[in-house]
Amino acid sequence: MSTPSLLILAGDGIGPEVMAEVRRIIDWYGAKRDLPFDVSEGLVGGCSYDAHGTPLTDETMARAQEVDAVLLGAVGGPAYDNLDFSVKPERGLLRLRKEMDLYANLRPAQCFDALADFSSLKRDVVAGLDIMIVRELTSGIYFGEPRGIIQEGNERVGINTQRYTESEIERVARSAFELARRRGNKVCSMEKANVMESGVLWREVVQKIGDTEYPDVELSHMYADAGAMQLCRWPKQFDVIVTDNLFGDLLSDAAAMLTGSLGMLPSASLGAPMENGRPKALYEPVHGSAPDITGQGKANPIACILSFAMALRYSFDKGNEADRLEKAVEKVLADGLRTADLLGEDGATPVTTSEMGDAILAALDASL
Ligand code: NAD
């Protein structure tokens, strides 16, 4: 099998700072686990605009289509706020998602024991939590036509349309079932079939895919509003949740915050399988470029490091190595090391971005 390829797009602000720590971890896997990666780098966002006048060049886009996985840091910053919409840093990210057709957005909500007190919920509700929300990302009400604001008589009307085809539901359902097989083997599908026809279709299609292709995976259905309540009441009842673009936007933000800091949250966006069987994939932390702390050694690299752990698991079929990396992060947190965003408890040891990277590498060494 050829060496797996990775394209690193560190981006702007703290993007390059957190990605530097990921680079060290990638090198560690090459040196210590005989798991080398063919790594290339490119520009995205404001730094690409500065160099090339566009937030993503055609060459970088083409490279993203070729590699096994893309790892992205963050884009944006105040220097680019007044640019024309067509060249804003975020357009680079949107182009990647659109042209790679990344329809399944994976947002884990995982709560490390050591950080359970950072949650707004009680410790026993969140400690040890490990759930995955799969949000449909390329269709639904954010894209459906007709849309707009029209004049009707003497008042204006705002219109958006929820629209899902069977094939769009089928493919994201398959992503969720596949993930469940690698995790706790349970999928809960959420919609509003009680009041929306698109929800009726969603439920039917997910059930059909479950019955015909994944009879071994336990499938349940829940109305999305009830799902929101259950996420706050007892989130540990879930394993994989699959839902549409709008509900997924809300539910994944709410679920992610069960676990504490923005600096801890990874994500993945997956598309159709490529010729080698791997899905098209982009891995990135949920946070942005954090201009308020850029260049100060304060950025928490864990969200970006955990995004790489997701790549190991979902693109490279190295679940054991992903576990190893997640355990290394858990160990460092249990030892009390904290970047600035996680400080606040007595007895914690403040560390910089690179010191956090050092400690995670040491924990990886200790795992051998
Ligand atoms: P942000 O996520 O950059 O920052 C929000 C707050 O969280 C800040 O106080 C920041 O210091 C803190 N924070 C974020 N990541 C952190 C980390 N790893 N470690 C420690 N603290 C962290 O969101 P924002 O301030 O709304 O946006 C800043 C810029 O980032 C904007 O230009 C925005 O458009 C862009 N943005 C990009 C992405 C992306 O690249 N995917 C996502 C969101 C925002």
From TrEMBL:
GO terms for cellular component: cytosol. Mg(2+) binds at residues 225, 249, 253. Its EC number is 1.1.1.85. The record marks 142, 192 as: Important for catalysis. The keyword Amino-acid biosynthesis applies. Pathway: Amino-acid biosynthesis; L-leucine biosynthesis; L-leucine from 3-methyl-2-oxobutanoate: step 3/4. SMART domains: Iso_dh. Pfam families: Iso_dh. PANTHER family: 3-ISOPROPYLMALATE DEHYDROGENASE. This is 3-isopropylmalate dehydrogenase. The lineage of its organism: Bacteria, Pseudomonadati, Pseudomonadota, Alphaproteobacteria, Rhodobacterales. The gene is leuB.
